[in-house]
């Protein structure tokens, strides 16, 4: 590990995971917006999953960046939220925004699972 000022440099894997979380957060936010325009009762389940995933990915990235001792547990929870969101988005396979979101969620879940298993 190299020292950069006061901070220990983040590993490449952790940097990639933070980026995946931030990207997933952004896509979830965009997808919520398109979901709201659709309206309808079926979207309520998807909206809940999007909201949970959006919040979890942002918090997870923040915790990794500040080297929280709870990062590994947060990554595990984040992976679960991402999996649930991907599944919810897959319920609308004809919607390209939902499919983009599902893909981003799956990628983020995979990276978060890897980080949860790694020593931070």
User: DSSP helix count?
Assistant: 4
Contiguous uncertain segments of 5+ residues: 1-6
Distance between the termini: 12 Å
Provide the residue-averaged pLDDT.
89
What would your notes on this structure say?
It is built from four helices and two strands. With 120 residues, the protein is mainly alpha-helical. Helix 3 (71-89) runs antiparallel to helix 4 (96-117). The model is unreliable at 1-6 (pLDDT under 50).
Topology readout:
Blueprint: E1 3-4, E2 7-8, H1 12-38, H2 42-65, H3 71-89, H4 96-117
Antiparallel strand pairs: 1-2
Summarize this entry quickly.
By secondary structure, this protein is mainly α. It has 4 helices and 2 strands.
List keywords for this structure.
single chain, 120 residues, mainly alpha, two-stranded antiparallel ribbon, 4 helices, disordered N terminus
């Amino acid at each position: 590990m190299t020292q950069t000022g006061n901070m220990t440099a983040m590993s490449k894997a952790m940097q990639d995971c933070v980026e995946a979380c931030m990207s997933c957060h952004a896509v979830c936010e965009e997808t919520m917006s398109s979901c709201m325009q659709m309206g309808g009762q079926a979207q309520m389940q998807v909206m809940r999953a999007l909201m949970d995933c959006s919040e979890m990915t942002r918090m997870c990235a923040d915790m990794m960046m500040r080297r929280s001792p709870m990062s590994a547990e947060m990554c595990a929870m984040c992976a679960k939220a991402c999996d649930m969101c991907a599944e919810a988005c897959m319920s609308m396979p004809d919607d390209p925004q939902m499919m983009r979101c599902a893909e981003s969620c799956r990628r983020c879940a995979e990276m978060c699972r890897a980080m949860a298993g790694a020593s931070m």
